[in-house]
Structure to design on (333 residues):
């Protein structure tokens, strides 16, 4: 099921020259939230440099497995059984993304789902940067009660018609992004752009086919055995003792406990792998023993950020951490 509509509209005359030349506002609905889950529908609103809608596109996708929480997205196995596979829409999807900044609400989720689907199809999504509208609303200081899409939409007077329907969610986000972008341009705000790196590690494992063999209309997560886009493995324990906290201006030292929080340009698993390979202890939670917290959003209210403030744990962003990884001090003998 494919739709394509084109519109034209006028734009303001003054614009920051450093801003991107085009955007692809994206929403995907999925079988769940885990790395093994699949896209079941996708929508793209293409916008010009000033946020005006150029066209939009929508497709269902056959995930070849149970559709997951039908009560949320409303897409049953019967509906999806006749839909195209992702590899069959990958070229058209790529054409919609090509040369544009991917815009999404909680963009790390949409990007990772898209990147994994392209990895499974042995292709790469033509996306080099993404922009999260949650991060942009924080940059603008919008007085929102929370960071849900419905709150952002209400702030700009955008009416949502079908929540958790990819096409309507993308429309709502596009209409809310336009005034956000204009406010950023008027205020000279730096857009919170992050790098997108395609995934290259990929493994194909058989999964039950979609349809009645997978549990009919479905509605839960227990009727299939998930496959994996990447071989799962348990990371070995760090062999070095914890030398204590990181000190600003000094080098990281092998054995330091490092925790990560929030959206990252490099996918979290790969970033953690690099840290472990450098001899650091990758911590899944934050405690008084944590040497360093890596986050691109130190003002967020995540539990790790809150605890870091309480414990006085040093905090650096992803770019600074990448520099520190280049020269990690060996552990004491």
């Amino acid at each position: 099921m494919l739709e394509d509509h084109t519109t034209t509209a006028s734009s303001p005359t003054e614009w920051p020259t450093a801003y991107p030349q085009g955007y692809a506002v994206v929403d995907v609905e999925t079988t769940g939230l885990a790395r093994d889950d699949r896209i079941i529908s996708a929508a793209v609103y293409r916008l010009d440099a000033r946020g005006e809608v150029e066209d939009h596109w929508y497709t269902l996708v056959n995930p070849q497995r149970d559709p997951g929480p039908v009560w949320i997205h409303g897409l049953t196995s019967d509906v999806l059984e006749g839909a195209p596979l992702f590899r069959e829409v990958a070229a058209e999807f790529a054409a919609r993304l090509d040369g544009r900044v991917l815009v999404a609400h909680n963009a790390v989720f949409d990007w990772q789902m898209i990147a994994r689907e392209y990895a499974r199809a042995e292709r790469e999504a033509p996306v080099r940067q993404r922009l999260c509208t949650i991060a942009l609303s924080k940059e603008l200081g919008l007085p929102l009660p929370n960071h849900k899409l419905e709150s952002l939409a209400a702030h700009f007077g955008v009416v949502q018609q079908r929540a958790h329907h990819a096409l309507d969610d993308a429309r709502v986000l596009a209409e809310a992004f336009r005034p956000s972008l204009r406010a950023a341009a008027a205020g000279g705000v730096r857009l919170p752009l992050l790098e997108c790196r395609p995934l290259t590690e990929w493994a194909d494992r058989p999964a039950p086919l979609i349809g009645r063999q997978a549990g009919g209309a479905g509605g839960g997560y227990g009727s299939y055995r998930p496959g994996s886009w990447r071989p799962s493995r348990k990371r070995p324990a760090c062999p070095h003792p914890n030398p204590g906290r990181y000190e600003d201006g000094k080098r990281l030292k092998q054995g330091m406990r490092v925790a990560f929080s929030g959206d990252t340009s490099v996918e979290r698993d790969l970033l953690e792998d690099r840290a472990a390979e450098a001899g650091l202890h990758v911590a899944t939670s934050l405690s008084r023993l944590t040497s360093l917290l890596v986050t691109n959003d130190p003002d967020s209210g995540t539990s790790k950020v809150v605890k870091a403030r309480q414990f006085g744990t040093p905090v650096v962003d992803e770019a600074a951490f990448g520099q520190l990884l280049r020269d990690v001090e060996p552990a004491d003998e």
Summary: The first helix runs from residue 70 to 73.
